[in-house]
Amino acid sequence: MAAIYSGIYLKLKSAKTSWEDKLKLARFAWISHQCVLPNKEQVLLDWVSQALVSNYNKKHELEDEVVEKLWAYLDNVIHSKRLQDLLKSGKTVGLSFSVAEIINKRLSEAYSEKTQQNIGTVLSCSSGILSTPSLSIIYTAKCELLVDLLSKLSKLACQQLASDDAVGSQLFSILQLTFAQYLLIQRQQTNPNRVFGRVTSHLLQPCLLLRHLLTVRNWTQADDNHVCQHLSREIRSQIETLLQAGLFQPELFSSYKEELLSEQESQEKKKGALKTLLLPVNTLQTKLGSDLCEPALHGAVVASSVSLLYKLFLDSYCKAENHLVCFHMLSRLFGCLRLSDLQEGGRSDTLFPVDWSVELLALEQLLNLVLSNDIYNVASDRIRHKEVQFGFYRKLAQILLTHAQASIPAWFRCLKLLMSLNHLIVEPDLDDLVSSAWIDAEASEPRTKKPQETLINTIFQIYSKLRQFPRLFEEVLTVICRPAADELRPSVFSAGLTAKLRECLLELPPNQILDILCLFVEKCQTLIIPAVEGSIDMALKLMSVCSVLHAFLFNMRSLDDVTPSPVVLRTQRLMANIQKGIIQPLMELLQAPRREEEKSELWLRKASDAALLLLYTWVEVDALFGVSCSKYVSPTLEAPVTEPAAKHWGISAFLPAVKDQCWRRVMELASSFASTSKYCLELITLQKMKMMLMQTEADLQALQHAAAFILESGRSTMSRGESEPWDGDISAVTELSYPTAHWHLVMSNLTILLPYISLKDVEYIANVLLETLMLAEAQEAAMDQEPSISIAKISLGLIHSSLLPEMRVLHCAFLTHLIHQFAMVLPTATRDSVDLPLQQLSVTNIPWHEEILTSCKTVDALDVSSENKVQKDELSLSWKTLEKVAQCIVLLTKNGCPVIVKERQLQRCLSLLEIVSLLKVDNFLPSDCTRCFLVLLSLLVNTRASVSCSRLLLLKVLSTCLHLLRCLQAGRNSNSVLKVLHASDVLEAVMTSQLTACKFFTDVLTVPVWAQYVQEVQEFLENFLHMIIERRQSVKLNLEKFMSFLVSCRPDTGAAKSIDWKNWSPAAEQLLLTAFTTLCHVVTLHLQQLPEKKLHSVDMLCALLEPVVLQMVRTVEHGLQSNTPNQPLPVAFIPSVTTLLKADLSHPVKKDWQKEPSGVLKCPRVKLYQEFYSQILKELPCARSNLQFLQFALQFLTVFCSVPELYPEKETAVMVVFAIKKLLSGPAITTQVIRSMEMELTEVLVQVLGNCSAEEFYAIMRLVLQGLEVRNIWQQKAKEVLSAVTLTKLLLSCPLSGDKGKAFWFASPQIITALALQTKEACQDQALISIIVIPILETVAALLRQGEGILVNPHHVSLAFSILLTVPLDHLNTEDYRGVFLGVHEVLFSIVQCHPKVLLKAAPSFLSSFHRLVASVMHEGRQKGDRGNMDEFEMILKCAHLVERMYTYIAAEMENFTVFSAFIVAQYVTELQKVTLHPAVKTHLTEGIYHILDLCIERDIKFLSASLPAGVRQVFKDLYNDYKHYHKAKKQGEEKYTA
Fold this sequence. Notes:
This protein is an all-alpha fold. It contains 76 helices and 4 strands. The strands form 2 sheets. The chain has a two-stranded parallel ribbon. The longest helix has 28 residues, at 1095-1122. It is globular. The chain starts with a helix and ends with a helix.
């Protein structure tokens, strides 16, 4: 042995032995049991360590390849199972500190060389060392080495993130491990100054850079997913923890305070000079200097770091007495930003827009921290600190307003925060604020629009609360009256701002509002009106002033009978002043004669917009005041109105001084501008109509002229088809948004306009509506993201509303145009044929609306009398046409003369069909219902796709037609169809056309669209046949005709003349079988539902059913014979055989379906069913996840197993359960698939267990218990366990009685014990959580619920708690977490509800299990910077709601649990102290814990207040104060009024 030892050692140490041989020998020595060396492991580790150290210390220069192999050997040794086993056994094996030094050195070289290709092995070595306690001592015992490693790894990570290469997980996993090790060491350090120095010297800069790069990295698919989603977040959190604990320890506060407070203050308090040498703030500022990182990144890294450092500082030191120190820290950190240079007069052009964005974002975060931590106390700052904070914020405001950045959202948010701190900060520069952030701000993008509106809303709220609204709008008026920057000055009030203004105006005293209005009116009269002619600048000012007047007058509180008289009189004077001082002069200006070229000038257009906007505002507000306030006297009533003007509601009725001739000139001018002017003209006309309708006798002719004017006004622009969205602001209507505004006005006021427009105008509206809907489909994706109003949105809104069906004339006209569009889709060669159904259904000379006109006010101005005298014989013209069309459709189908359409036309058809689907068919008139039915029928039976068409598209069109036909026949007027068509003709036409079309579909029988199409055919036939039978529509005749047609369709009958049998295909076979199946199913169903008394109906239906069954048998047998041997059954055959079996079982007692004495059924089809059953059982386990096959197969088994006599010889119910178990254990079966077919599985087992013998049930139970044995999971047979667990759950859903019930519950303790063992094993592998653990939880919950009163042994129920305490609730993905949480909750709730006695004995287990749920919800529901998607958050909210429900139930139903209430509260607040919850989650949890606090008596509260730790005690104090303030007070108030 000594020879072996000396030989190996000498060879390893010998310079003569080559390194290749040394490495081979070392590998052999490590793995071989034959090589025996004293302390072999340590010797080999020392050898490889010494070799590497010598190389890096330049004692022995080795080749790079040898060095890499030495590192690989060291890595293999560190990660070897042999070493791990040795360490577990207690043997001491270590490494020298020099290994840590050379690892750090190698990483440093890699960083310097900017290559990370050859350091994977070194990183793996460091990972192994750090994760092995006995080896990691080389780092943990010498903290400097660990700090150096962390610094090097951080720099390497920064280098990788800054490059374009994909990010791998190895480096970041080791980095996360190193951070964790360092944080453990840092917590054990007792000298805060040393920790501060170490962090600032070595770690601060790389950590800040790393955090920034992790935050701003645009992750790609090439990057490692684990790094993106988890490690990056974990590392950022660790960096924050490191900096918090290293830079801002409580012991360092005195140093911060001494440095931050001025020298004078410090001397006054301490009567001495600065005694400390540690200058922490200065150190931090220095570290944030230019050497932090490369210049290109420096500004962004500093900006993101400053806000982080300030947040950590506040988290550590922010208390009421330290607010001044916190402020000085803010000012020092702000000095690190480039913005601070501007405070000292620096140039703003040195900052690019992207730099501005970063800097302003950092400033916003700083100000947010100041506001949320209440650092700035206005009174304290003024009285005690000589407004030092105020001065700082004033300078900030001046910087922001001097260097306005209206294109950056953060700029608005910073100003908003300053306003929230103290409005006086910005007050001296209010005019600049109003100008740069509002009136002249070009914030057109949505991302800047929202923060701008938020800022202005804040200003509104502040000045309205201070009752200084007039002061604010003085500045607004001042800014407006400055020269406009350009003609594109934005509108003063957007739709969002108008809503905010409305809220403020409702709170303001009316006199303040009138002060503002008077101010604007006076300025307009004195400054703007005299100089507006010819001046673009003055015209823009006028428009802005008028838009403000409009916003105020429209959104202020209206006058009413309780308004004080002085306010009413002042309002009257204001209205008169607006009328005489502004509107009349502008009307005179606009009506002046001008040359054509002058009429297009910009100033005139803006003056026209302003004048008509103000006129419309004045007219509408004047009318409103007159209606709502009896004391109000309109200025128009004070002036005499000429008789014609009053009679015809001319302009003189509103403006006595303006003559009708002048008004016509104004209207002509305004109508030439497709802008605000034209839109306001329409609004004024509409207001006239409203006022006329309010009179006792309305002028019908005037109403018709007004309605026609409104429609005509926008007709030309609507026909162009060019428009853009509109935000609802009247003053911002442009040439492109005018069509949208016009259409919005028409659609919003259809109920007023429709009774007074001609039929031609109704058709015009219907045509535009249809055209815009056809465009809407293409724009749908863009519309969802666009908050503004668009024409497509308006049209869709009308179609979806309940108003359109009420407007029957428009509804009818819309349908006519829709049918006309279908007709236009047809090929040109056949479009002009007068016999084509679609052409006949959309001709305009037939009065399709004749049913409506007799009771409708709608009149045609051209031919009023003719429509009021429609003769009776003419009233039937439309129905005669419908009959003719119906006959035409049937004839064309029989003759086989379809129209051939191309793919583009088919696509157009599909778009039109989608519009039809938007209509509410229940509201169709009988004639419209029939028309629509005939259109769809014609498309279905008389249209064929060309050979080049997409088969999938054709199937989709046919499916949509069938679906819509089914909707129509389910409507209330579906009987009207049968006035023009025989039911059997419809069925025959549909089946003939579809069987002929099947030749196209031979190659698409496996795609989902085909299955959907067959489903639609089946549902259409089923609904139509139901309708025939239920409504008694010549039942016998129609069904016999349809049946004989189907029989004639069989290829072997030789009687089918209407179909080209050369083209007979499997698709046609499947469709024919579907028709037979549906007919058989419907007749069988009605046969089962008929009462015994109706013998005649029973006999008739039986007579119909018999030949159908016979034909189905032939078709099925033919299909099965033509099926390739050893191939699966065609899915379409299974429901057919199921229906056949149901039909046979539903027959009344028959001679050939009787039990013989032997017990075997005698029926010619029994053999078919038995063969089919055997084939189903054979294929069931091989079905994988073919859900459709599985559902159909299980439905067949349900019916088959309901008659035990049908089982083949020597087969029992056990075979069915065995096949199901085999199916459930298949590799493709997931919990989602099981959930999808759970209902069918339950129905099968109900029949199987209900009809099986006790012995068979015992065999089934043995089968289940074998699957639950724990050896299955040891042998990696997880699916075996899943199948047994699922079967157990399904058995619990079946009614078990007698011996079967006793047998199951006798085995239940064994089941629950097995489930507990399975859970313990499965929880060790996270992949098994969804496969086994979640189903087990669901099964245990069901077992406990069903076992109420049966499971009497408390121990068996307590086993459920061992399952709950084993299941993990952290580090799960969203779906697994949801499943586990709901499972645990259901088990707990089952115990609480069904086993309360056990609960009291096992209270600690219950509380532990429930607390795990609460803690997990708090962890998942904490506030996160990068909140996940909404689905995930909704799931967490649901979990929080369930926790609330459990708390409530415990408090309400479990009086004996009162003794544990204090403990539950203590658990809750202890967990709450660790996290900051999202408000929505916190609301649910808080409501729940309030109910537990209801159970706490005074002694419990005192106990909690005294015994909880300091931090937790404060959380409890806040919780209890809120409880008393909100919950307890409310509860006592309710109890006071409770009998």
